[in-house]
Amino acid sequence: MVMENAISDASDFAHTPIPKLTQLDALLRCHICKDFLKVPVLTPCGHTFCSLCIREYINVQGKCPLCLSELRDSMLRSDFLVSEIVDSYKAVRDDLVRVLVETKKEDEDEDADQSVIELGSDVEEPALSQSSDDVQIVGTNERGTLKRAATDLLGGSSRSKFFKSGNVAKRSSTTSRIESMFHKSEEMAACPICERFFPVKELERTHLDECLTLQSLGKSPNPAQRKPKLREKPVLPRSTRIKSTSEAPKVSHVDKYIHSSAENGHQRLPKLDLSSMPVTQVKQKLAQLGLPTLGSKQDMVARYNHYEMLWNSNFCDSLDPVDESELKRQLTSWEASRKSNSTKSTSNSISNMMVSRASKSNSQEEYRKLLANFRNDKFSRKAWSKLFNKQFKRLVRDAKKRVVKSEASTKEATSQHESDDKEDVEDPLSDPDLSADLLNAIDAKASKPSP
Amino acid sequence: MASLPKRIIKETERLVTDPVPGITAEPHDDNLRYFQVTIEGPAGSPYEEGLFQLELYLPDDYPMEAPKVRFLTKIYHPNIDRLGRICLDILKTNWSPALQIRTVLLSVQALLASPNPNDPLANDVAEDWIKNEQGAKQTAREWTQRYAKK
């Protein structure tokens, strides 16, 4: 979940002992938004993008962004396997980066005080490096410095083989640093509590204490978190970790993939050439879908087109479709952000209406929850301002605008927008106390520049 | 102004942490969609030793729409006109959202290395280029010395 907000990049792996992970990371990203694939869809030309990204681009131009071949949205097919691969990768990525970065740091520390130590026998290594797939994967790694992170991945059984093949790879790059790391990895030992492997020193000094503390707190340090047996049983590591802290339901990406089906009883929305239809017909189409029929024809056409995209992406491509009200909420926020983007701020308030509508239906519950804590410490200011962000911004903007406009008749204007604002605010809030507070704050702001 | 899409933040970060050799791109303090760009003239071209200033703007619809790029430094090139506008397919018809600031600037740099007088924007320069390539290159070198000196 943290991942959603943080901006990660494939280059995060460039300076870890396994720089080739950069490629894996890059391949799991959409070439349009550069983020991890979200509801991936496959084109007939064999390229994969986020459903929404590619649908949005097809609305602009019917070409594949990567090979420029012709593309229509009806050609897109959802790709459940990639979807689950991405999700399970996202779930381990944070841990992976952390472990690798730690490993790297330790290596650098080691460098300072350890000399080169030759280990292993040259003769038997090449044979061993081909004896198992695990080892081969390891062996192809440029730097061959897998150490703890890799040991975790491979599990204890293949440990000895892995170390030897690691040595083969190292031999090619013969740096003293790597030799010393190799030596270090020989000193690994399993923690008796969490069963993960650590360098003996670290195990004795810090890890045992940490592990015992965690255990006494009732949080079992789960071995699966760092040592997923990817081959036989790809459980989702994050779900196990979450489980140790909270009671989140466990999701298996494998099960989800096996049971995935595109059938959910929803028809796809057709692409319509609304701009060539008369306005009344456009309104009719929107009304049929329960969408607002406000604004210019252009607005309505854009609204339908965006909703069609959201709908088809959600009901045709997604494994976890949300219901229509959530789609409408997304449409609302899209429209609002579009409005704030365009320089001409329309006093005709479609977005206002949409927002109040959204507040009434979807955000009502959230609003009630927040309101329950309004007068005590638990009140979440952030969530509150987020919920009403648009209204706040709009009120301030409108107020400022009017003050500037009618400097001559300031008083009149102030009273005017007070009444206007009241209308706007009270509708969604339906709490006279609060809206009065709000208005006071806004008035104070707005009337500052007036003489 | 609406919040900056994640992709733009990401690209900006990458441009700073892992810059393309010979190219710099810095976002403007007041407008993170506006970049000040410098491109070094490619070695072996008449623009060698020159440092060219450009501006790059990411429109609201980016990456669905191509970035707007323009030379600020005067340059003698058949595909770049007096106003600094660039005739480059990926900035117009062949734009794809899979491209990014980095690739666009690399393409501009490549355009300096291989001018295409058969698809001109600056007609007079292109004519000169076709009739007397050596002379045109000489002029380009002089302009580089005069306007784009590092």
TrEMBL record, chain A:
Residues 404-420 have a biased composition (Basic and acidic residues). It comes from Maudiozyma humilis. E3 RING-finger protein, member of the UBC2/RAD6 epistasis group. Associates to the E2 ubiquitin conjugating enzyme UBC2/RAD6 to form the UBC2-RAD18 ubiquitin ligase complex involved in postreplicative repair (PRR) of damaged DNA. Residues 421-430 have a biased composition (Acidic residues). It catalyses: S-ubiquitinyl-[E2 ubiquitin-conjugating enzyme]-L-cysteine + [acceptor protein]-L-lysine = [E2 ubiquitin-conjugating enzyme]-L-cysteine + N(6)-ubiquitinyl-[acceptor protein]-L-lysine. Keywords: DNA damage, DNA repair, DNA-binding, Metal-binding, Nucleus, Transferase, Ubl conjugation pathway, Zinc, Zinc-finger. Residues 188-216 form the UBZ4-type domain. It comes from the Eukaryota. Its EC number is 2.3.2.27. Pathway: Protein modification; protein ubiquitination. This is Postreplication repair E3 ubiquitin-protein ligase RAD18.
From TrEMBL, chain B:
InterPro entries: UBC (IPR000608), UBQ-conjugating_AS (IPR023313), UBQ-conjugating_enzyme/RWD (IPR016135). The active site is at C87 (glycyl thioester intermediate). This is E2 ubiquitin-conjugating enzyme. It comes from Maudiozyma humilis (Sour dough yeast). Residues 3-149 form the UBC core domain. It holds the Pfam family UQ_con. The keyword Nucleotide-binding applies. Signal peptide: none annotated. PROSITE patterns: UBC_1, UBC_2. Belongs to the ubiquitin-conjugating enzyme family. GO terms for molecular function: ATP binding; ubiquitin conjugating enzyme activity. Keywords: ATP-binding, Nucleotide-binding, Transferase, Ubl conjugation pathway. SMART domains: UBCc (SM00212). CDD domains: UBCc_UBE2N.
